[in-house]
# Entry
Amino acid sequence: MLLACRVVPRELLELLHASTLGSNAVDLELLQGTLAEMGEPAFRTRQVWEWAARGAASYEQMTNLPEALRLELAQRVPLSSLSVEHEALASDGTEKALFRTNDGRPIETVLMRYRDGRRSLCLSSQSGCPLTCTFCATGTMAFGRNLTASEILDQALHFRRGSAAGGSRGPSEGGTGRAAEEINHAVFMGMGEPLLNLDGVLGACERLPDIGVHPSSTTISTVGWIPGIERLTERDGPTIRLALSLHAPDDALRSELMPVNDRYPLADVLDACRRWHEVRKRKVYVEYLMLSGVNDKYEQALALAALLEPRGAFKVNLIPYNPTESGFEGSTREAIASFRQALEDKGVPATVRLTRGRDIHAACGQLAVSAPAR
Ligand code: SAH
# Structure
């Protein structure tokens, strides 16, 4: 059941870092360059971005730009670096899009809609993932590369433009576009490990507020990549929320479930999180996947509670397991409830995550595309 591959190949990681540095923080640069070439004033870039951030689906809609300029931009600067290959809408209103990057890499993004008006985007930071967490579907697809800041933002802009659920007519049906939809939260819990692409992720986070998503409503979820946690601790700029995928209260089990634990063991990861908490004055969200008979025993709840010191630094989110091909079984509702109670009894705040979008394979850990990266 548990995979044997335990080590993240060093060459792969080096390649990853190289590809981040070489990334072209594209569209806006291309736009700026094109506008400059055309002799347009500098404020035009801002005008175009403001339209895009408010959900404009075409240059045509940017009515404060001269018509000739709109036509020329439409020819020369694509409004998105991603093309939509497939969209699906779940019965609970969750929506998933499969995109391709310009070089043919697949990415998936999910929009979760909640009754209280919350609109939360689950963003991908990489096409595929180089880590091989045994319970996660993304790890089984071919790893592609880090996404650029623009490719991350373009995922958000797609949904900002409105969605199939909105019922407005899309361009292919003769409409002018979809009705723009407000988005107010973002979580980096789609494909990939965001802290392996921190430049791309932070680049996107700088602009997400223009789309309506503020740093305090943005969460970066990590397997516990310590150099990235340290950078988030030390960096200037507003605090982005931090979530740690913990999943097991001891190193032996955690290494079985998440091979990355061999590189960054639990005690070191938790130290890095404590430091982040001290500096950033926010709780670290601990994600804990509930796997039947694997990590859901009473003693394991006690062991977890013992790890999460000081009280006040951590908050646990128990995650019902979404089926993948991995062979694990999710804990029962009762087992999850007892685990939660055991944590609460020890003074550790814990909630159970609502599962969304299961019928379209959009839930956590189900984002994978069978097509190999081209
Ligand atoms: N690499 C990052 C972000 C992507 S995964 C990370 O690991 O945190 C986002 C969350 O989904 C993680 O907590 C991950 O462990 C969880 N997850 C993965 N597979 C899952 C599954 N099959 N069911 C439920 N949650 C899953």
